[in-house]
């Protein structure tokens, strides 16, 4: 039997212009280059092109994986910059960096015209602090290029009615929907909860503590806490003395599986993330974050079917970031679709996972492959089939992964075992799992191994 690879999160490639950034193996560092007179911490320092280019090269030598160039301060009370002025600030710097840096350059702007010009000058990432929701042209500007996009949560005032993270996630889902509608492929998106934007210091601390929850959206996660006022408030320190406070937040983010941190102090923060990764990624620390309850449907109709189910559960449970909590009874069911094949054994398991939905899917496929599944025909026989039925409350529509499972409500062989574990859960059509299982009752399968 092929052993499974042991990494908790499968590394993925983030295509951005001519670059492919590998996310998921280590925490990437985005170095901040503000070509502004008034940014809250480095305003005025890199206004001339030569000084800016010098600083960017220095940050790359210090270990930066991306350089983020901004021409308008977003700090509260900053003077808005006309488009032409913003372009005049960033374009010469971006052009010089795109031609000379070995890493992608990103442009920090929420204006489509600035983004378009920056992409033409060689930027490979658009970093939009309004998550494609301020300038209606922005999503199309990104789609027309091969760039990646960081969509950040933001709002004018910290007026949250309900759960903070739920509202942030709803905003980011809307950003992702706008990106998709405009034709930006899903694998080019990065999400950011917007530390310091439309949030009180207390909100920023909560976002930091609950950062791992964003992984459920299925996109790489970025956090930008560098030298921000929340750190100043907690430590009662001015902007020039927030290095250690930033380091603490960066370490907490990396320990929860953040993929990218946006920072000013690249040399120091590269050390912080390398050290944190050596503990957290290498030893599955962020796999011990609270995690999400997910439900997986298993089916087998070849070989020793019961042994296959048992082995699949064992392999899934042996994955860092997946803990098997409960199993349903095992049911023997007639095959659906292709007839004339042996009957199935089906089971549903409840897991707690810190893997993102795509990583959980990758793991399910790896388990299928390890148990010798050969995909020939859609409904054909298989040693094992592992489907994600629910992943927390997420609704997702990524290539190859729709959640909740789109055919859940039609299948007695899934609903009956699922109803043992999750009778009250409501299906996308509005029906309770237990009611749907009872509705399909006539074809209800028999339990062969009771729990
Ligand atoms: N923070 C700032 C600017 N851009 N982009 C993302 N994706 N996430 C952030 O948290 C973020 C951002 C603000 O920081 P800074 O650039 O240092 O200051 P200013 O806006 O004053 O230029």
What are the main properties of this structure?
binds 6-hydroxymethylpterin-diphosphate; six-stranded antiparallel beta sheet; 13 helices; 451 residues
Euclidean distance between termini CA atoms: 28 Å
Put simply, the count of helices is 13
Low-confidence stretches: 1-8
Radius of gyration: 24 Å
State the strand order across the main sheet: 8-7-6-5-4-3-10-9
Give a quick account of the main beta sheet: strands, pairing sense, barrel closure: 8 strands, parallel
Structural class: alpha/beta
What is bound: which ligands? 6-hydroxymethylpterin-diphosphate
Q: Write down the overall geometry.
A: elongated
The pLDDT mean sits at: 89
SSE blueprint:
Blueprint: E1 12-16, E2 19-23, E3 28-34, H1 49-61, E4 66-70, H2 83-100, E5 105-108, H3 112-120, E6 125-128, H4 138-143, E7 148-152, H5 164-182, E8 189-192, H6 201-209, E9 222-223, H7 229-235, H8 243-255, E10 260-263, H9 266-280, E11 292-300, H10 305-317, E12 322-327, E13 330-333, E14 344-353, H11 357-370, E15 385-391, E16 396-398, E17 401-403, H12 412-421, H13 433-439, E18 446-449
Parallel strand pairs: 3-4, 3-10, 4-5, 5-6, 6-7, 7-8, 9-10
Antiparallel strand pairs: 1-2, 11-14, 11-15, 12-14, 13-14, 13-18, 16-17
Bound molecules: 6-hydroxymethylpterin-diphosphate.
């Amino acid at each position: 039997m092929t052993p499974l690879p042991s990494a908790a999160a499968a590394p993925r490639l983030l295509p951005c212009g001519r670059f492919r950034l590998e996310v998921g193996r280590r925490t990437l560092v985005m170095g901040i280059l503000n070509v502004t007179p008034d940014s809250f911490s480095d305003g005025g320092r890199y206004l001339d092109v030569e000084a800016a280019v010098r600083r960017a090269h220095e940050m790359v030598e210090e270990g930066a994986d991306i350089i983020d160039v901004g021409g308008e301060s977003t700090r509260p009370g900053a003077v808005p910059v006309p488009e032409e002025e913003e372009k005049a600030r960033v374009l010469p710097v971006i052009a010089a960096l795109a031609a000379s840096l070995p890493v992608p350059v990103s442009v920090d702007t929420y204006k489509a015209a600035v983004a378009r010009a920056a992409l033409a000058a060689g930027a490979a990432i658009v970093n939009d602090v309004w998550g494609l929701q301020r300038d209606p042209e922005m999503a199309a500007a990104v789609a027309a290029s091969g760039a990646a996009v960081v969509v950040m949560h933001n709002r004018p005032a910290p007026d949250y009615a309900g759960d903070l993270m739920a509202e942030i996630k709803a905003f980011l889902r809307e950003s992702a929907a706008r990106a998709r509608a405009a034709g930006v492929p899903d694998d080019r998106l990065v999400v950011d909860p917007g530390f310091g934007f439309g949030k009180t210091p207390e909100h920023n601390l909560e976002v930091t503590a609950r950062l791992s929850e964003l992984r459920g959206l299925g996109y790489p996660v970025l956090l930008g806490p560098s030298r921000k006022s929340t750190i100043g408030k907690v430590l009662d320190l001015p902007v020039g003395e927030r290095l250690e406070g930033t380091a603490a937040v960066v370490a907490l983010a990396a320990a929860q599986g953040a993929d990218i941190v946006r920072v000013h102090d690249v040399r120091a923060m590269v050390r912080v993330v390398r050290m944190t990764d050596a503990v957290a990624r290498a030893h599955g620390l962020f796999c011990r974050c609270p995690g999400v309850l997910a439900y997986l449907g298993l089916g087998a109709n070849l070989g020793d079917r019961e042994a296959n189910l048992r082995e699949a559960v064992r392999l899934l449970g042996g994955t860092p970031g997946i803990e098997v909590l409960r199993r349903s009874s095992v049911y023997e069911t007639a095959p659906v679709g292709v007839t004339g094949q042996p009957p199935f054994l089906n089971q549903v398991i409840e897991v707690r996972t810190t893997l993102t939905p795509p990583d959980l899917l990758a793991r399910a496929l790896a388990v299928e492959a390890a148990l010798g599944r050969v995909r020939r025909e859609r409904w054909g026989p298989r040693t094992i089939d592992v489907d994600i039925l629910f992943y927390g409350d997420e609704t997702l529509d990524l290539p190859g992964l729709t959640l909740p499972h789109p055919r859940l409500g039609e299948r007695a062989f899934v609903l009956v075992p699922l109803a043992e574990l999750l009778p009250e859960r409501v299906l996308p059509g509005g029906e309770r799992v237990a009611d749907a299982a009872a509705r399909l009752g006539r074809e209800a399968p028999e339990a062969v191994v009771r729990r």
